[in-house]
Amino acid sequence: MVNIMDSFVHGLEKPLILWLLSRKPRHGYELIKEFRKLTGQRLKPGIVYPFLHWLEDEGFAVSEWVKRSGRNLRCYRLTEKGENMLTKLRDLFNKPIKELITDLLGK
Prior knowledge:
Layout: H1 4-10, H2 13-23, H3 28-39, H4 45-57, E1 61-68, E2 71-78, H5 80-93, H6 96-105
């Protein structure tokens, strides 16, 4: 049987990754941890890393190696093209679907 909550959150994985990257540069594991804080659900590395690579390949994000706590980490940030894509997603959610989500959440 399909878990409805898992299915719903699964549809928000990539938009949430974009939103998190718009807040500040992050590495993959940081995205996984933040996603869990926001949703209570586990974000699989098999979703995160291919999506980050795709974002970079398509010019929506860039990465750089940074040293944190003695470790080298690859951090990603959105480019202007990535910010534009996020704006388009926000516009999509600001249409009538916003009313539906607001009602669904009971706010």
